[in-house]
Amino acid sequence: MEETIQLDLSSRVIPIVLKNGEGEAKTYELREMSSLMRDQFLDKLSARTRMDAQGRPIGIQKFEGLQADLLSRCLFHDGKLVTSQDIQSWPSSVVSKLYAKAQEVNHLSEVEAQKVADEAKKD
Question: At what angle do helices 110-122 and 92-105 cross, to 10 degrees?
């Protein structure tokens, strides 16, 4: 008899506090995307990918908006998605940290992909 796999269908939510230059704070939520939203992001990302003559991915064609595109699909403020335009106006250090966390939450980073692969091997 095979072991039972139990999974939680609730999405992961991480509170984010961003302060402006005057010290005023706004609270955001970084939420795990649905499978559909994640697939749509990956489809859009694949359109940016450069391929070699054999059709293997070798890099990214265009970086502009890449991080904001992911964040605009999973970063919320007051219950609404934050726009790419707003995200792109923030300092690059803030966007880079949020992007890394969004990759982790949505199993998009290489580290998270390896964890998922390792878990699958156990099954």
Answer: 10
